[in-house]
Design goal:
single chain; 236 residues; mainly alpha; two-stranded antiparallel sheet; 4 helices; 4% strand; rod-shaped
Length: 236
Amino acid sequence: MRTTIPTLLLPGLPGRLFIGCLFIGCLSLGSVLTISCGGRSVEPQKTGNQETKAAAPILATTSVISQQIDRRLRLPGELLPWQEATIYPRVPGFVERILVDRGSMVRAGQLLVSLSAPELGSRRTGDEALAASAAARRLEAEARTNHARAQRTEAEAHLAAVNATLQRLKSAATTPGVVSGNELEIALRRVEAEQARVQALKESEQAAIAQSRAIAENEAAARAAASAARTTEDYL
């Protein structure tokens, strides 16, 4: 069976020339349609080996080991205490030993610092000397007090005697001519003199007692100062 393709001829052009122009036009139209419909060119397909190499890049690896750190860093810092307390010594002195360090844990009553106060020993010696001197003076004052008391007792006895004599003379003077007025006057003056002597001895005794008490208080103060100095020395 034969098929006949109709041929369209233009006037003035040969048949073969017309068919060639028509073929060229179809090719141009096909290229235009391909560019306008696709919008992009088709890349050539890659092989399987090329895709594997692009998806899995090569990374450097190493083995994990355990070892000592050989790198040190010096960083500035400040240590702040949890609690601060200011302490003062009882007496000024020189630091001999420090028994704790900064940041150490301490407890109440623990010895922290050992001090030395040379002048404390000399002061204690001076207080003890004052106490001994006050004790000696106190003994002397007590002796004077006892002597004044004895003199007062003797004067009171003598006063009692002359007063009794005066009373007898007054009784006898009631009888005219038995006692002269001169004897009565002399006895009265003796009584007054003894009364004044007794009063003076009483005042002297009171003064000796007051002096003895003052010296005893000074002695007690000196002994207390010496004891305090000794206690402070033991504390240091």
